[in-house]
């Protein structure tokens, strides 16, 4: 018998890349590759990359150096790079890393089987063309529906906002929405396979259907997905604050399956910086959306993103960001020092903030957010939360799940509860998770 071929796949960046990686695994199974967690076993190494920040791109090249060493001892090893760095770098990537066998961009997953088969015959290839045809979703496979409690479902690709700092429109292309029928077909298949929670994905899900007059909008799509039998909980990400409509806000009050959590990146608390970023809203407008969401769903939990040290951010602007996080009281906040990305508008701006000052601001912000996160987690002690059990905890001696507000939770209980929503009394709130006891089920 021929030895089974092994795929080692590493994923960087956002949930969209995680979703794409699921599709990659499905495609590679179609040509005889089984996934392995051990790169030493691999016949094929694929990196699905992110270029949203310079540090993410640098990590990719660092990893490639490691696999270059492996290839010296295993000359037949195939190495491929996909995702946003591949889309951005294209042929430059092959010049920097000539030992790489294939480079595939964000619109080219459908070519991957052919490219890998070519690499098996010694061919080096690159595919980074954008596919602007509105039917391009039909070229991408569904991830396999077997297994898992919670899965991602892509509902749109690309972005039309062109925030000054953001590389996404340049590496993912313009917005295109998937048909509601195709989304429902995939969600139905997942539900039939035992999946109980789905997260609808897009660079800006709020603009779903904007470019297709007469088609369902995102609020319509949420209501349709919530009616799929077997789906018990529904999430979505990511939301651009300027595009949150009253109809979407109402969904949090009216759709019982919609989790009380929203990822709502502010990026800054300063109107001057928001304007420079081309975000399309003011601080007051952002806070109006936060208040409206809390009125619709008092228990809603907010997470977000914040950029520190953007060109033009002085100390007064930064203080306004600090005030914003105290006012919103995010459950979690992903915060980063600004890094210029090639091709973006902000790369042309003069950057006058010293690196040491940027680092000091980031540390102040993260210290403040750490206190807020701990206080919010401690506030759950004594409450009863509905937790979707995902499976064993990392230590294997308890169960792991998430509350509707997306709080990681560890509890004792029967492993057979995986995939079920259970009532959990919270006994402890820690920095990164909750602990609790499953009530009678």
TrEMBL record:
Residues 378-440 form the TRAM domain. Belongs to the methylthiotransferase family. MiaB subfamily. It catalyses: N(6)-dimethylallyladenosine(37) in tRNA + (sulfur carrier)-SH + AH2 + 2 S-adenosyl-L-methionine = 2-methylsulfanyl-N(6)-dimethylallyladenosine(37) in tRNA + (sulfur carrier)-H + 5'-deoxyadenosine + L-methionine + A + S-adenosyl-L-homocysteine + 2 H(+). GO terms for molecular function: tRNA-2-methylthio-N(6)-dimethylallyladenosine(37) synthase activity. Residues 5-121 form the MTTase N-terminal domain. It comes from Geomonas propionica. The keyword Transmembrane does not apply. The keyword tRNA processing applies. CDD domains: Radical_SAM. Its EC number is 2.8.4.3. It is found in: Cytoplasm. [4Fe-4S] cluster 1 binds at residues 14, 50, 84. Gene3D superfamilies: Methylthiotransferase, N-terminal domain, tm_1862 like domain. Monomer. Keywords: 4Fe-4S, Cytoplasm, Iron, Iron-sulfur, Metal-binding, S-adenosyl-L-methionine, Transferase, tRNA processing. Binds 2 [4Fe-4S] clusters. One cluster is coordinated with 3 cysteines and an exchangeable S-adenosyl-L-methionine. This is tRNA-2-methylthio-N(6)-dimethylallyladenosine synthase. InterPro entries: Elp3/MiaA/NifB-like_rSAM, Methylthiotransferase, Methylthiotransferase_CS, Methylthiotransferase_N, Methylthiotransferase_N_sf, MiaB_methiolase, rSAM, rSAM_horseshoe.
């Amino acid at each position: 018998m021929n030895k089974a071929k092994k795929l080692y796949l590493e994923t960087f960046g956002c949930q969209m890349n995680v979703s794409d990686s699921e599709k990659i695994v499905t495609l590679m199974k179609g040509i005889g590759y089984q996934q392995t967690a051990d790169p030493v076993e691999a016949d094929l190494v694929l990196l699905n990359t992110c270029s949203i920040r310079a540090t993410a791109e640098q990590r990719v090249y660092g990893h490639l150096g490691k696999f270059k060493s492996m290839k010296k001892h295993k000359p037949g090893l195939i190495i491929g790079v996909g995702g946003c760095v591949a889309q951005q770098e294209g042929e430059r990537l092959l010049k920097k890393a000539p030992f790489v066998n294939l480079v595939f961009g964000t619109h080219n997953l459908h070519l991957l089987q052919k490219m890998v088969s070519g690499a098996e015959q010694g061919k080096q290839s690159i595919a980074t063309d954008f596919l602007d045809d509105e039917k391009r979703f039909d070229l991408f496979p569904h991830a396999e529906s077997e297994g898992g409690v919670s899965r991602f479902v892509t509902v749109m690709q690309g972005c039309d906002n062109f925030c000054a700092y953001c590389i996404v429109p340049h590496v993912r292309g313009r917005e295109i929405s998937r048909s509601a029928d195709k989304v429902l077909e995939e969600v139905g298949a997942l539900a039939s396979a035992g999946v109980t929670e789905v997260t609808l994905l897009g660079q800006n899900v709020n603009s779903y259907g904007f470019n297709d007059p007469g088609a369902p909008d995102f609020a319509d799509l949420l209501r349709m997905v919530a009616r799929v039998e077997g789906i018990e909980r529904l999430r979505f990400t990511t939301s651009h604050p300027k595009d949150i409509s009253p109809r979407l806000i109402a969904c949090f009050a009216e759709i019982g399956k919609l989790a009380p959590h929203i990822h709502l990146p502010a990026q800054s608390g300063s109107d001057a910086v928001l304007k420079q970023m081309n975000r399309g809203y003011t601080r007051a407008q952002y806070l109006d959306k936060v208040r409206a969401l809390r009125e619709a769903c008092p228990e809603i939990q907010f997470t977000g993103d914040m950029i520190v040290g953007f060109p033009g951010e002085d100390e007064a602007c930064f203080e306004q960001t600090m005030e914003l996080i105290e006012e919103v009281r995010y459950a979690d906040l992903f915060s980063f020092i600004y890094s210029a990305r090639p091709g973006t508008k902000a790369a042309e701006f003069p950057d006058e903030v010293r690196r040491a000052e940027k680092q000091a601001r980031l540390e102040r912000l993260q210290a403040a957010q750490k206190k807020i996160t701990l206080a919010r987690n401690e506030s759950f002690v004594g409450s009863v939360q509905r937790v979707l059990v995902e499976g064993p905890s990392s230590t294997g001696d308890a169960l792991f799940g998430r509350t509707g507000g997306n709080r990681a939770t560890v509890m004792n209980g029967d492993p057979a509860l995986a995939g079920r929503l259970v009532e959990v009394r919270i006994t402890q709130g820690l920095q990164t998770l909750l602990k609790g006891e499953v009530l009678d089920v």
